[in-house]
């Protein structure tokens, strides 16, 4: 029976996996639940075939495991699997839908990531998690002390004002508030130390890694953004053009076209969230710099800032930065000022 199976479609989970085996004629051979151990044994002992999964949590791990045993792995984006689910949603229907989607000749698949690439993603997300936690603690401290008339501007750079207020004995603060405030300050200091260390590691990588160093030559892109591109973007040679890469990031207008009439809306936001957010933040910093200077030698950017709101201009500039990333990466060149 195993020799007749051409596709093993797996609905991933933590402990119980649904496996739908499809024959060469497209008929379902079996569709049953398996434990982690049984799934690993199946992939190890089964003759080489197509292994299809949704591109979700743990899919890259199982993809590497299947590839190590000679299977062809097809990771299907979850949004492309959903239209093939028949009627009610359950594990059996999901596994069968994955098999249907994987057999489509025009389907787009996600490349299996290496352990090194996923390691970069963990480092980046750890840095971002620490930054969010520090911001949460700073905002909590600001909110608590504001109840006692101590107000400080936003941001970690102004945290010293609150520290001085807590240390000042003349400040009219109850002792429990001082004690709790000192706990906040200690936690923020520890997080800042970790964030600075992770930032230094990202900056060091951007200087030693040729690809990261090349991306950092683009205005508005620093070590964090370059690291996010290296961690989350697939091989940029897989994109036919810079516009396709920008579309993958969700930086192109959403289309509602029909009858030969083009209707374009706001950006689709359907791509990689982390890279898109960082590109827009970097574009906004470039625009603020242009506004402070009163203009730019880049005529396209100067005209854009003059006629469009800042956020609209930032998204347009982020789109252009994405195209620059694709061009520099595929052509192995550094950024040159126009």
What does this structure look like?
- Helix content is 55%, strand content 12%.
- The strands form two sheets. A five-stranded mixed beta sheet has the order 3-2-1-4-5.
- The mean pLDDT is 89.
- The radius of gyration is 25 Å and the shape is globular.
- With 338 residues, it is of the alpha/beta class.
- The protein is built from 13 helices and seven strands.
- It starts with a strand and ends in a 7-residue tail after the last helix.
Record keyword descriptors for this entry:
about 350 residues, alpha/beta, Nucleotidyltransferase, domain 5, 3 domains, five-stranded mixed beta sheet, two-stranded antiparallel sheet, globular
Order of strands, main sheet, comes to 3-2-1-4-5
As a percent range, the share of strand residues is 5-15%
Can you give the helix content as a percent range? 55-70%
The SSE order reads EEEHEHEHHHHHHHHEEHHH
Helix tally equals 13
Radius of gyration: 25 Å
Question: What is the makeup of the main sheet?
Answer: 5 strands, mixed
- How many domains make up the 3D coordinates? 3
List low-confidence stretches.
none
Gross morphology: globular
Question: How is the secondary structure organized here?
Answer:
Layout: E1 5-11, E2 16-23, E3 28-35, H1 36-45, E4 50-54, H2 59-68, E5 72-76, H3 78-81, H4 91-103, H5 115-146, H6 159-167, H7 175-208, H8 210-215, H9 223-232, H10 242-248, E6 253-255, E7 264-267, H11 273-293, H12 299-307, H13 310-331
Parallel strand pairs: 1-4, 4-5
Antiparallel strand pairs: 1-2, 2-3, 6-7
Helix pairs in contact: 5-7, 5-9, 7-9, 9-11, 10-13, 11-13
């Amino acid at each position: 029976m195993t020799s007749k199976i051409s596709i093993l479609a797996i609905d991933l989970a933590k402990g119980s996996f649904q496996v739908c085996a499809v024959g060469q004629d497209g008929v379902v051979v079996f569709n049953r639940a398996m434990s982690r151990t049984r799934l690993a044994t199946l992939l190890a002992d089964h003759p080489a075939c197509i292994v299809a999964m949704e591109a979700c949590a743990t899919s890259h791990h199982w993809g590497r495991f299947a590839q190590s045993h000679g299977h062809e792995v097809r990771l299907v984006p979850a949004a492309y699997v959903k239209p093939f689910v028949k009627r009610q949603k359950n594990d059996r229907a999901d596994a069968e839908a994955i098999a249907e989607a994987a057999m489509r000749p025009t389907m787009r698949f996600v490349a299996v990531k290496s352990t090194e690439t996923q390691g970069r993603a963990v480092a980046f997300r750890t840095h971002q998690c620490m930054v969010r936690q520090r911001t949460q603690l700073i905002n909590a401290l600001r909110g608590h002390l504001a109840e006692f008339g101590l107000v400080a501007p936003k941001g970690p750079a102004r945290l010293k004002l609150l520290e001085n207020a807590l240390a000042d004995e003349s400040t009219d603060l109850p002792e429990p508030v001082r004690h709790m405030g000192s706990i906040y300050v200690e936690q923020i200091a520890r997080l800042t130390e970790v964030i600075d260390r992770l930032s230094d590691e990202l900056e060091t990588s951007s200087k030693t890694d040729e690809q990261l160093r090349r991306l950092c030559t683009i205005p508005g892109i620093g070590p964090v953004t370059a690291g996010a591109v290296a961690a989350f973007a697939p091989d940029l040679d897989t994109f036919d053009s810079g516009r396709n890469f920008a579309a993958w990031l969700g930086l192109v207008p959403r289309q509602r076209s029909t009858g030969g009439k083009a209707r374009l809306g706001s950006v689709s936001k359907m791509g990689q969230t982390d890279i898109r957010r960082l590109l827009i933040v970097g574009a906004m910093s470039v625009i603020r710099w242009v506004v402070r200077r009163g203009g730019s030698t880049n005529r396209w950017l100067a005209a854009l800032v003059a006629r469009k709101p800042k956020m609209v201009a930032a998204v347009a500039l982020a789109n252009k930065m994405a195209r620059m990333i694709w061009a520099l990466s595929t052509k192995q060149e550094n950024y040159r000022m126009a």
